[in-house]
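Dataset card, provenance and construction

Sequences and ligand SMILES were collected as paired inputs. For each pair, a complete structure of the chain with the small molecule in place was predicted and serialized as structure tokens. The example below shows a pair involving pyridoxal-5'-phosphate. Curators did not alter the output after generation; any descriptive sentences attached to a record were derived from the structure itself.
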Amino acid sequence: MKAEMVAPHETPGDMSPEDFRRYGHQIVDWIAEYLSHPERYPILSQNQPGDVKSALPSSAPERGESFEAMLADLDRVIVPGVTHWNNPAFFAYFPSSGSGPGILGELLTAAFNVNAMLWRTSPSATELEEVTLDWLRQMIGLSNDFEGVIYDTASISTLCAIAAAREAVPDLRVREDGLAGAKLRIYASEHVHSSIDRSAITLGIGQSALRKIPCDSEYRMEPRSLELAIADDRAHGWQPFCVVATTGTTSSASIDPVAAIADICEREGVWLHVDAAYGGFAAVVPEMRWILEGADRADSLVINPHKSLFVPLDLSVLYCKQMDVLRSAFSLVPEYLRSDEGDDVRNFMDYGPQLGRRFRALKLWFVMRYFGIEGLRERISNQLAMAREFAGWIEQSDDFELMAPVSLGLVCFRARPHSIDEQAERSLKENPKVPHWSRDVEYVDNYLDILNEGLLEEVNRRGKVFLSHTKLNEAFTLRLAIGNIRTTREHVKLAWDELNDVLGSRN
Ligand SMILES: *Cc1c(COP(=O)(O)O)cnc(C)c1O
């Protein structure tokens, strides 16, 4: 071992500046080519489990390799195993697109490599975060009672918000004593995102403390049921402390009546957190501001610029009215991190469980400056219009039906071939007394589930477009979500053609 040690005056150092420039240019060229020819790749990776692992050596190379060899393996091994979220015909889940300025911002974040834990560990990172989040706050029309902090994901933003809500409970002393003996209750609709369950689990409140409130026929929380649930809980010794309302649920993009829920929260003295992780982006368009109606009365709100604001993963924003409460839920300053700027500056490490923080605000700043508010509005309006147009095609078709109202960029639908109803009618006419499978609702639903599951699988297997699914009222439902910055009407039309083509070939 000793013989191989390197003497200090021979410090091996980094890649040379010349090589960095050369390979850096190659990679930027590679990315530009990749983004401008998405049709070269099937969107959903066609890999089998283990394909990537078996194409790679089982241990790291003993000696450094050439960059050319690495780039060759990128094409050979990595790209086939990538599901292409940046492809404009990616309509699954909620899309996320890395826009040009966002990707370049990420590159600079890596280059600076600052840790934005304290103001002094990089004043620009801290102050740019404050400035860009105030810009974003104004863009979505949220009142200036709110201040923001960036986390990696909405799951963590919400976890921190619920920790703040818990911190706000008088006399709980959870930091000192834990949750022993506390019977806390948190409320959200049946359609709430699983991150709320996870927060309850992680924060030790327990999943059984999350009470799910029934929804109306459009999948929105029923305020009256919330009121009754809180009263019932109080009568049984529970302590209601937080309600999560969602604007843009994950399954169907339904929008809870935030104003009516805020009335209840104010009356009951419980923390209101609004999950606008998905839906918040639409409020950038003035005609869509209504989706955040009532949100000004919340205590906290999460929005994900990495979902529909063209910022590459990851970047989630939590807005909070009482930043001091959020701070007191988490702040703990060891001696080696003490600094003397006092209250004049914000030390973002105090606002969550993490210490180290990336300089994420840079990519948000790039995206907002490059496109401008007007450019962002134009792009978002265009996406909402494309979703409405697709929904219109469904409504006019004899073979598909909508499964939920469409107000954002998400369309929930399923195939329901007209032949199924014709068949039912015919059998009724021919044999009015004999029960027939097509009059059996359960049988038809079952049949439609199987049909739609097969349809989705085949459409995705073809690789030109990628859609996902959910269940609404137990029925297998297809989801087409528009949110990629490069998606055009042609891509949406392609999805429609693929669906009709596959369905036609099955009938
Ligand atoms: C996507 C989503 C989340 C979770 O977002 P992450 O950033 O992936 O944690 C939470 N709530 C809603 C409504 C979402 O759509």
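Derived descriptions for this record:
Residues 115-359 form a domain with the Aspartate Aminotransferase; domain 2 fold (CATH 3.40.640.10).
The chain has a mean pLDDT of 93.
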